[in-house]
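Action item from last week, closing it out:
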Amino acid sequence: MRPHRTNRSKGRRTVWKGLICLLLLGSLLCGCELWTLERGIRQVGRGIEEADGLGMEEAALYHLRVAKQLLDAAEKQYEQADFPAATQFLDQSERQLAVARRIHSMNQSAPRSY
């Protein structure tokens, strides 16, 4: 056996091991981002369903409808594998849901005039 061939094969193995490690790490990081996005879509969907049953006033209902439409757009982008756009739509949907909840809570805490 020639020594220069064993050194080359060791170098090749090291390179392959490094590439495999990078590939595994990249897929792990990408997978974590996708799981986070999917979990976020489910959480916002549950939040919208809960807010739907609260009997919100018209001002809050507008923001709730916008949140639903943005969530639908986020789900569509997620299915089409456009993850940055899905994340943006999901963030906007969360903000609209928060506004709807804030308006609803302000209307609930306001004194009623009979």
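Closing note: The two ends are 99 Å apart (CA to CA).
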